[in-house]
């Protein structure tokens, strides 16, 4: 495989913020009396904040207005941002830092492709604000995963054709986005366990070093 660039998802691939997302949605759901658990949470991986809320509200006992939904999404984001204050490089997932360092050593381009609007804050907190050759995130895009927009933007910022990129994802929505963008895709975490369509299913992110 002629891979010239790796595009990493952020939450659940580089850093354990996927659990912070869960905790913040759980707090909001409990307050609203809506049932929510880790199984439902797996459907929120990779999708935007409002699309995540719509999935949670499938179990609500009443309809919510657009204004109420906006307020709920903002409330969740406030809870989430409170947890980001305590985020440090210790929250990097096993193998993530070594993988980044080794890809740099091999002169493979690296990028972030994340649906999260909190990406800049997170990269700063974990000490990786300047680590990537390109960052494409929720602030740059109109359509979130499974649409390929964020990955195509990352590839274009790197100047590398999609077919020479490897995407690393923990979300099924992200796996589908990479495929739709014509990229190779390695699944880790939840998608590593369950994705039928990924080219590779891995336990840890550093296993990609054997693929390149
Ligand atoms: C993705 C997460 O990275 O970002 C999703 O996997 C989340 O769970 C999405 O909904 C949007 O994040 P944010 O930080 O913009 O609310
Ligand atoms: Mg993710």
Give a written overview of the molecule.
The chain has 212 residues and is an alpha/beta fold. The chain has two domains: 5-16 and 89-210, Rossmann fold, CATH 3.40.50.1000; 18-84, Orthogonal Bundle (DNA polymerase, domain 1), CATH 1.10.150.240. The protein is built from nine helices and six strands; from the N terminus they run E-H-H-H-H-H-E-H-E-H-E-H-E-H-E. Strands 3-2-1-4-5-6 form a six-stranded parallel sheet, with helices on both faces. Helix 6 links the parallel strand 2 (109-113) and strand 3 (134-136). Helix 1 crosses helix 4. The longest helix is centred in the middle third of the chain and has 19 residues, at 66-84. The radius of gyration is 17 Å and the shape is globular. The model has no long low-confidence stretch (mean pLDDT 97). The chain binds 6-O-phosphono-beta-D-glucopyranose and magnesium ion (MG). 6-O-phosphono-beta-D-glucopyranose is lined by residues 10-11, 21, 44-49, 52, 77, 114-118, 138, 171. 6-O-phosphono-beta-D-glucopyranose (BG6) is lined by residues 10-11, 21, 44-49, 52, 77, 114-118, 138, 171.
